[in-house]
Amino acid sequence: MIGARTIAEATIRDTIIHRIDPRAKILILISTVFVAVALDNPRTMFLLFLIVLSGFALAKMPAIKLKTLAILLILLIWGTIYSQALFYSQLPRTVIFTIISPDFPVLGWLTNGGLFVYEEGLRHGAIQGLRSASILSLGLLMCWTTDSRDMLNGLVGLRVPYSVAFMVVTAVRFLPIIITEVTTVITVQRLRGFNPKKFGSGIIRTTLNILTPTLSNCVRRTGTLAVSVQSRAFRANTERTYLKKLKFSEFDKAVLTICIFAAVSIVVIKLLYNMYTSGIYYTSGLRPVYAIARGYL
Amino acid sequence: MKNIALLFLVLVLALEPAAAQAQEDFEPEEMTAFIIQAPHGVVENGLAAGDSNLSAYVFFETYHNGNMNVTMEIDVPEGFVLQDTSLHSFSLQTEYEDWYRLIDIYIPEETPPGAYNISASAIVDVNGSKHSIVRKAQIRVASKEEIANEISVSGLVIPSDEDGYGDPRRPSNTLVIRETSPALKKLLKATELQIDREELISTYIGVEVSNKGKSTVSVIVTYDILDIKTGETVKAYKPDLMGMSADAFCNAALKLPPGSSSLASIPLYISDNAMGGDYLLRVNVKLTGSDWTAVKHDQKITSISRKWGPITITFVSILIGLAAVSLFFSRSKEIMDRFKTRNLVLISLFGTVSFAAINLPMTILWELSHAIFGPFSFLFTGLFHEILLYMLIASLVVLIPKPGVVSLFMLVRFLLGGFITGSFTPITFITLSLNAVILELMMYTAGISGKNPDPENRFRMGFVCGIAEMVSGYAGFSVWMVLYRLFYSEWYIIANILISGFLYTFIGAWFGISLGNRLKKVAE
Questions:
Q1: B418 touches chain A (CB under 8 A)
Q2: Which of A32, A247, B59, B498 lies at a C-alpha separation of 20 to 30 Å from B182?
Q3: Domain residue limits at A58
Q4: Is residue A245 part of a domain?
Q5: ipTM (interface predicted TM)
Q6: Which tens digits make up the pLDDT trace of A168-197?
Q7: CB contact, 8 Å: A141 with chain B?
Q8: To the nearest whole angstrom, how far is the Cα of A276 from the nearest Cα of chain B?
């Protein structure tokens, strides 16, 4: 559990990545999500993935986090490969393994003609897995290089209502306490003879046995906490002041401008290209744009 | 007796000129139409290749209003092999009655190049009077290499317009698979009508064929769309239309004078079940009436499958999500003021518990089980994810039966997930926001939350949560397919949303009521 907490918490260092304003990080992440979703060219997707990974090198991430990242990426990409190998529905496709034969009683009918592993699906899954991998990697880089309080300041800076920010702060603050409580309850349940790994109805019983005391504590804590925050003028004034003022540096501005410009350009180019291929809109003046989309995006 | 002999003589003398008149009146060239085409469809000189079959066409029609017996003999040059009988006899009884046959002839490989005559001679018997008519068709026999060198596909445009010309508005060598409108499908099913071939036409293929030879060549242009790997014909690109093979519609006949080229436009039909991907378009050019393919021209094409259903669902889901977020941001003060501070604290703590009990273990467990069980991991992960999550949601609604509770809970989960595990993904945003909107609406409509809330009906809670999860689950698959370009079989999606989406959620919500009631006692 301590290991999990170490992995989940941010590693605070003084690197170029750490110094980026949390608002800029959130906006860079959103821009990257748009780019990752818009791209189709495997080489460009791989390039995006490498760019994101280079951020970990710049942030000088500790080995445990890099290991975690590697494990998560391997599992994520393999999961996508696995599912796409089974469901790939483009031609050509080559069956390399039959899981359920079309003649297999009931299942053959249920699966609408059997279930196979397709060679081309493996490749497709690997390519498409890069998309999720880029998003996940950048999300983790953002989390691991930003203190949760700074992140919440960033959210408030991006006009997220303070009450919501407060709720998230509360959730973040109580996370270690609740994790500890859940661990304690599981230990107590084990001592009383319950097996949390018991499958079937055992899962529901175990869940209820774990959740009831944990949530009961939460309910009890709610009253105390509510009185505590209200006594400190929570929601008393519409305007709030903050101890730490966020400020974009010149570097932040430059990176953010590049990211937003790249994201908007790529999304617009892809949109125009898709409109062209779908027969919705075409103009001869955009031919170079179509060529870029077809060749590189 | 003398009188009888005289009468007979008069009768003979009277009838003989009449019969002679009738025979003189029958002009075989004018009273019949007799045509031979070799190969079939070629009016003038035809072309044939050695070691191939050709079909000659023989047609006979009478304009004589009376009985006519015809004996027809087909005569082919020495060495040619007539695949049918050379002699045909038939009887025509009335004006405009006709007879025709396609005669298959094999031309051996060793046939020397040159001009050959195929003749058809008809002996027409009208009232015992016989007339002979002869027709000849000249064909030029050339070697396959010679013909193949003369004819070529000089241009291939896909997709093209109805005249075979390229359309710059559409990308070259790319097909877009259009879905037949679900409304149209329903209408056709209701009215028991077949889908007309015009509705299936996807585009046209423009084929330009050139003839560099010195004689006129008639050709038939056809195409096949093949699996690029196996070379097998893909049926979905040549579906049966109105009970007939698409080959009957997907061809074009061209007559190519010496040194000319001509453009043909061939319709391309694509059925709904066609798959996207890379294909090989093979254009075949055959001499008219011959079974030998003179020219084969291959072109790699790409087919793009646009499933408008998932695209529409994704678009609508994004709109709903953005609308919900915009509404929340624009009216955040009014919305948040409706909750007491202790409500907000409780929601955030429930968010923490859900994150600690579901998201954190699931970050690894989800991916691990996905890696082991593949797409079937939902059977296992759903037990934790759906049951636990809906236990928490249902119990929270029992504790605070107000509209907006579920949305805030989802918001905390989304932000927490984003901060701790970096899961700020479009899928998470869309599915969570859609799930929140549907749950809020359904709970309010069902009376679970609102002015006089009744959140303790297990069946109602289970049903509402189950349906909401099914809808957001289905939308989630659409988003995966559209934004992440992933494929999922329909049966898998159905199984997933029924088992994990409804069943597990129903169980979770059912037990969540018990949990909520226990917590209520603690709160009181």
A1: yes
A2: B498
A3: 2-146
A4: no
A5: 0.83
A6: 878 887 887 888 888 888 888 878 777 766
A7: yes
A8: 7
